[in-house]
């Protein structure tokens, strides 16, 4: 039976006061997108503001541009959806079977600041639907709360881009929030791969998280298992 999956991407194209360009990391979007589409499911793409959503320029260059990324770039339907994303505000949780928060450093600014995104995540979680996030996208989970008014991630097994990975690419001095640090502050049970940039996926009930770009497609596979 076909499911309806909402993929959420950032609307933010700047690295705060540092001024560099950012956006969604293409592989994190494309890897999951085609895992869902090729399995016969329906995918909608939304962003915090709606409309055209930026891609991180770094993800469009070698060696980061993968075959899946190239497929997305040449897919008229997929690129049109990214140019005309749905605004999060007004979306109803009952419309979707799962939400997948796509990463990219831009999410560190607009995901935690989006009240409509927080409310949508809370509604999906409380109805038992699948809530998934990868890399910096996990920061969208950090403002959500569960039925008992404690942080959604408190006491739950999670992952997300690690402090070591942030330091390796110099983002530890740029992004306003470090996912590993913030998850630990909220009482989550954070874990990561033994080596930076290796795939690592964690499932805790209906909450599924992936560590980095290499984890995007494997996380999407786990989402499909959860939906089944």
TrEMBL record:
Query: Which InterPro entries does the annotation name?
Result: Class_I_gatase-like (IPR029062), DJ-1/PfpI (IPR002818), Prot/Nucl_acid_deglycase (IPR050325)
Q: Which residues form the DJ-1/PfpI domain?
A: 28-225
SUPFAM superfamilies, sorted: Class I glutamine amidotransferase-like
Lyase among the record's keywords?
yes
Q: Which domain of life is it from?
A: Bacteria
Task: Report keywords, A-Z.
Answer: Glutamine amidotransferase, Lyase, Stress response
The UniProt similarity line reads: Belongs to the peptidase C56 family. HSP31-like subfamily.
Name the record gives this protein: Type 1 glutamine amidotransferase domain-containing protein
Q: What is the lineage of its organism?
A: Bacteria, Pseudomonadati, Pseudomonadota, Gammaproteobacteria, Steroidobacterales
